[in-house]
């Protein structure tokens, strides 16, 4: 045992027992000033912090009694001021900072799940922030790591390498988004005066055009919708056939409108108006005008979608067709179709097509990228695409720069008129 080897520390003359040699109180006993034998005649400060359920102790660094009283009063007033504004008095860990930041973000969540305006954040965004902190930032630094021990330079390169070692398929854009959240956490701590400016994270440069490979290639998209044509041929259960029919239309509408997964899932029949236009061959073409009420970027109206006939097909699949009914409704309850149904059938599509070898694994969101990419290839103005998708021109230019490279290549190498291959990429189902 340790004590038998080194002797009882209490009785060891190398470690003399600590005891107070002098003591008095201020503020009706809330503050204690004392001297201990181990610190000579230097006065010590102690006060109970009920909010933290522990004592705050500090050396007053003086042997003079009157000067010690003056410093004790100043320190006590400073402590009370920090308590009133919610500042931490003790060394704070990265875990505690993350929790405090999440508490603040929780207050910003818009009422009504995803809300309808641009103030605050959506429940989905809050969930993303929580994941970024709990699964990545805190494990990277160590749950018990104190803020005072963190150097802003330790993020440079190290965080990216750590993330890619843990998740080889993680995309650069995911890391860029995580870096933005981490920066917000540390600015929050800086505003609270918990850290110094040189502790703010510093990062290596990363390319912003990180989502270029997330969009489906034309051949990949063709394989998906070809598979969807015979998707239910071996199914015999009505509820499975219904689910697959709904998910099929969901996929096609996402790719034809650029809507986000949640935006389409929340759509009601009253949000969609169909109209007919003549195509370049003089044939009638049904299109849609969509009012997006629920979105992480706020409401937007008159989103123009191709393939309005998909909504006509949907009306034949469901009995929930009133204006206030969800378009993708559960046949029994009328509520929104469960998310798990979408994900389960999407995974089946991935497994049974060439997408199973695509990295990173395609998600529903890749259909939004596919829409943007194909629209740009059709020379639709960037401003119009950004307006329709509820994003900024800058975002489109930064994240779809690869399309410009493709277009330049086509211009430099083509000998005949522009290829028509993408013309009907979404009209063949």
Automatic annotation (TrEMBL):
InterPro entries: DNA_brk_join_enz, Integrase-like_cat_sf, Integrase_catalytic, Integrase_recombinase_N, Tyrosine_recombinase_XerCD. PROSITE patterns: TYR_RECOMBINASE. The keyword Ligase does not apply. Residues 211-414 form the Tyr recombinase domain. The keyword ATP-binding does not apply. One of its GO terms (molecular function) is DNA binding. Keywords: DNA recombination, DNA-binding. One of its GO terms (biological process) is DNA recombination. It holds the Pfam family Phage_integrase. PANTHER family: PHAGE INTEGRASE-RELATED (PTHR30349), PROPHAGE INTEGRASE INTD-RELATED (PTHR30349:SF64). Belongs to the 'phage' integrase family. This is Putative Phage integrase family protein. It comes from uncultured marine microorganism HF4000_APKG2J17. The lineage of its organism: unclassified sequences, environmental samples.
């Amino acid at each position: 045992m340790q004590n038998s080897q080194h002797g009882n520390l209490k009785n060891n003359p190398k470690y003399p027992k600590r005891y107070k040699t002098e003591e008095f109180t201020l503020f009706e006993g809330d503050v204690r000033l004392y001297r201990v034998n181990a610190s000579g005649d230097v006065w010590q400060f102690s006060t109970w912090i009920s909010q933290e359920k522990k004592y705050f102790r500090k050396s007053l660094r003086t042997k003079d009694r009157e000067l010690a009283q003056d410093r004790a009063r100043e320190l006590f007033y400073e402590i009370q001021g920090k308590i009133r504004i919610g500042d931490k008095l003790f060394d704070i860990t990265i875990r505690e900072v993350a929790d405090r930041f999440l508490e603040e973000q929780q207050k910003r969540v818009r009422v009504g799940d995803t809300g309808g305006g641009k103030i605050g954040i959506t429940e989905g965004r809050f969930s993303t922030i929580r994941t970024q902190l709990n699964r990545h930032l805190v494990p990277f630094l160590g749950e018990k790591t104190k803020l005072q021990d963190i150097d802003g330079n330790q993020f440079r390169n190290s965080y990216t390498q750590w993330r890619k070692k843990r998740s080889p398929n993680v995309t650069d854009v995911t890391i860029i988004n995580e870096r933005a959240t981490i920066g917000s956490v540390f600015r929050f701590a800086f505003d609270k005066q918990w850290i110094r400016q040189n502790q703010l994270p510093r990062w290596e440069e990363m390319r912003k055009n990180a989502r270029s490979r997330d969009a489906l290639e034309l051949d990949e998209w063709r394989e998906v919708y070809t598979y969807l044509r015979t998707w239910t041929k071996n199914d015999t259960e009505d509820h499975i056939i219904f689910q697959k029919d709904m998910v099929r239309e969901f996929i096609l509408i996402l790719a034809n409108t650029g809507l986000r997964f949640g935006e389409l899932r929340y759509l009601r029949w009253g949000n969609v108006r169909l109209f007919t236009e003549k195509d370049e061959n003089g044939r009638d073409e049904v299109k849609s005008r969509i009012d997006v009420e629920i979105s992480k970027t706020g409401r937007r109206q008159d989103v123009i979608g191709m393939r309005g006939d998909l909504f006509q097909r949907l009306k034949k699949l469901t009995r929930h067709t009133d204006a206030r009914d969800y378009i993708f409704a559960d046949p029994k309850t009328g509520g929104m179709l469960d998310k798990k149904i979408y994900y389960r059938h999407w995974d089946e599509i991935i497994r049974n097509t060439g997408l199973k070898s695509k990295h990173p694994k395609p998600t529903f969101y890749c259909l939004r990228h596919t829409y943007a990419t194909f629209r740009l290839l059709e020379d639709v103005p960037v401003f119009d695409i950004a307006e329709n998708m509820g994003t900024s021109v800058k975002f489109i230019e930064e994240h779809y720069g690869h399309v410009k490279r493709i277009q330049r290549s086509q211009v430099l190498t083509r000998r005949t008129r522009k290829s028509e291959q993408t013309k009907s990429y979404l009209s063949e189902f």
